[in-house]
Design brief:
Helix content is 49%, strand content 5%. With 153 residues, it is mainly α. The chain has one domain. The termini are far apart.
Length: 153
């Protein structure tokens, strides 16, 4: 599958994602995910400085989170607020498009795939670091085969 941007140029990151994501998604789901993220990549292209030819999808996680929040608010009509515990809350409003959740799921998978294949070195910007830390602690304490933590005898 080849993915082209709004100016009919080959979009290498999304083409790479499409090739790799076929292992996790059905062809129909992959198409839905691509259609969900294509407008965001067009948004990034329109908002990047003209001298930045590499695009901004591979920026540091904090920059990506700011871009996602801006896209959610400006283009999808959502309200994004920072929770007191540090994570972002996305609220769908009356003017929100129905695909905000699909967009976030697709972009989260995009960054997971790009990290797995070594095309994005930073942390996945759509995953909360505290949850990864808690998962790692749980994995370290799990010495049983049935998924329950080992108990001291």
């Amino acid at each position: 599958m080849l993915v082209f941007d709004s100016q009919n140029r080959l979009h290498l990151p999304l083409t790479t994602f499409a090739r790799e994501a076929t292992r996790q998604l059905s062809p129909g789901s992959l198409k839905v995910y691509l259609y969900a993220v294509l407008p965001f990549f067009a948004f990034l292209d329109a908002s990047r400085p003209p001298d930045n030819k590499s695009g901004s999808w591979n920026a540091e996680p904090e920059r990506i989170r700011r871009d996602v929040a801006e896209y959610l608010e400006d283009d999808l009509g959502c309200v994004v607020r920072r929770h007191r515990h540090g994570f972002e809350l996305v609220t769908v409003t009356g003017r929100s498009r129905a695909n905000a959740g699909g967009f976030l799921a697709a972009l989260k998978l995009f960054y997971s795939v790009m990290r797995e294949i070594g095309c994005y070195a930073a942390e996945n910007p759509l995953l909360d670091a505290s949850w990864r830390w808690l998962d790692e602690i749980a994995d370290e304490g799990d010495d049983t085969d049935d998924g329950r933590p080992a108990q001291d005898a």
